[in-house]
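TA notes, week 10

Several of you asked for a full example with nothing omitted. So below is the full record: structure tokens for the whole chain, then the designed sequence directly under it. When grading your own attempts, check the secondary structure regions first.
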């Protein structure tokens, strides 16, 4: 028996003694205060996007900022950019566009786009409640009342009038003439399948107004083809936009070019794009534009072709992405206008130098 007990101890078999030995040799647990606590999540990087600025605003102010779509600046860009084209084309050869006018029209675009959205939501608050994408808009959701939005509209229009009064008399009358379009556009979706055409007539008024603000009146050989080009452009991007809501629009009885064109949408968009490019070429020729301008027009054509070719009209997220990318179209053209104007100085010198040498 003694031999068996000795053998078991030598093998280190299980038993109270071996358990005590194992416990003694194991590393002691760290003290409670030394244990590593779970690290806090990294701080969220600060964003200076328009949506973040609206979220950071005081809570009572946020519904009004959302009513004027300050958190979605794509529409403001699309209203502002035709103004910049016209101001740029009206600049003197070899000169940059008038910075004061660009700033004035920028402020006017924010105010008038906000006013247009307020009018639109006042007309459409009952429709907006029935569409998932628009049900959270302040009027549809009941965050503000119709009376409050009406007072807010009056404030926006008053500030916009102050901007307009900074222009010459011709431009004041021309700008005031656009108000009827701003007010009636939201009704068009109840009447016609072409509300995007009326939106185009409204959104591109700056193509007329920008030139008159610089020159004192419109040069129709330049302004009219530029304006019509902008209208064609709006038909492109807003038809794409309308495809996001086409299922809801059918249910609530709202009309749009998306419902009119259906599966033929890409063919129509291609036709509008070609008409836009043709109008831009005519406007450029009538104001003696140069190589950088036509290069930008070609880049605009390539961008639109890519948009249309890759567009999936049955995916709302793709429609929104394509719609928002049209800001790039407008900036490309404005850049080409500015560089084309600066290029004109070289053309003038190349003509004058041979005359001086004679």
């Amino acid at each position: 028996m003694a031999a068996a007990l000795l053998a078991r101890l030598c093998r280190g078999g299980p038993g109270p003694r071996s358990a005590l030995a194992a416990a003694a040799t194991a590393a002691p647990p760290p003290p409670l205060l030394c244990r590593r606590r779970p690290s806090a999540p990294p701080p969220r990087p600060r964003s200076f996007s328009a949506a973040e600025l609206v979220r950071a605003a005081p809570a009572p102010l946020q519904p009004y900022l959302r009513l004027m779509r300050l958190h979605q600046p794509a529409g403001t860009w699309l209203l502002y950019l035709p103004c910049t084209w016209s101001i740029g084309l009206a600049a003197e050869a070899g000169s940059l566009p008038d910075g004061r006018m660009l700033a004035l029209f920028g402020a006017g675009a924010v105010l008038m786009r906000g006013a247009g959205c307020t009018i639109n939501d006042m007309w459409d608050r009952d429709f907006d409640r029935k569409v998932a994408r628009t049900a959270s808009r302040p009027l549809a959701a009941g965050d503000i009342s119709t009376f409050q939005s009406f007072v807010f509209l009056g404030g926006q229009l008053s500030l916009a009038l102050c901007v307009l009064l900074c222009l010459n008399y011709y431009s004041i009358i021309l700008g005031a003439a656009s108000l009827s379009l701003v007010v009636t556009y939201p009704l068009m979706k109840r009447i016609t399948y072409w509300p995007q055409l009326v939106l185009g007539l409204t959104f591109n008024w700056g193509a007329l107004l920008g030139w008159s603000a610089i020159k004192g009146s419109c040069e129709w050989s330049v302004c009219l083809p530029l304006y019509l080009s902008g209208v064609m452009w709006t038909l492109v991007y807003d038809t794409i936009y309308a495809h996001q809501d086409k299922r809801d629009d059918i249910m609530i009885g709202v009309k749009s070019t998306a419902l009119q064109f259906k599966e033929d949408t890409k063919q129509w968009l291609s036709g509008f794009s070609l008409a836009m490019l043709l109008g831009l070429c005519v406007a450029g020729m009538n104001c003696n534009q140069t190589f950088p301008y036509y290069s930008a027009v070609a880049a605009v054509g390539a961008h639109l072709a890519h948009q249309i070719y890759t567009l999936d009209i049955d995916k709302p997220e793709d429609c929104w992405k394509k719609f928002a990318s049209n800001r790039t179209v407008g900036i490309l053209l404005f850049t080409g206008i500015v560089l084309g104007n600066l290029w004109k100085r070289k053309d003038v010198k190349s003509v004058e130098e041979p005359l001086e040498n004679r």
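The two ends are 132 Å apart (CA to CA). Use that as a sanity check on your answer.
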